[in-house]
Amino acid sequence: MSSLSNSLWVLLLGSLLGLELIGKVPPTLHTPLMSGANAISGITMLASLTLLSQAAGNPALLAIGALSLGFALYNVVGGFLVTDRMLAMFRRR
Amino acid sequence: MNSLSIDLFTDAIDLVAVLLLALGLKGLSKVRSARTANGLAALAMGLAVVGLLIQLQPSPITWLWIAVGSALGGLAGVLTAQRVPMTAMPEVVALFNGCGGMASLLVAVGVALFASQDSGMVELVSIAISVFVGAITFSGSIVAMAKLQGWLDTPAWTQSSLRHAVNIGLALLCLLGGIQIPAHPAGWPLWLLVGASTLLGIGVTLPIGGADMPVVISLLNSYSGVAAAAAGFVVGSQLLIVAGAMVGAAGLILTQVMCTAMNRSLVSVLFGGALGTAGGSVGGGGSEAGYTRITSCSPEECAMALEQAERVVFVPGYGLAVAQAQHALRELAKLLEAHGVEVSYAIHPVAGRMPGHMNVLLAEADVPYEQLVEMDIINPEFPRTDVVIVLGANDVVNPDAKSDPSSPLYGMPVLEVDQARQVFVVKRSLGAGYAGIPNALFELPQTAMVFGDAKAVLNGLLSELRSLGVGKVAAGAKEKVGV
Question: What whole-number distance in Å separates Cα of residue B212 and Cα of residue B252?
Answer without folding.
Answer: 16
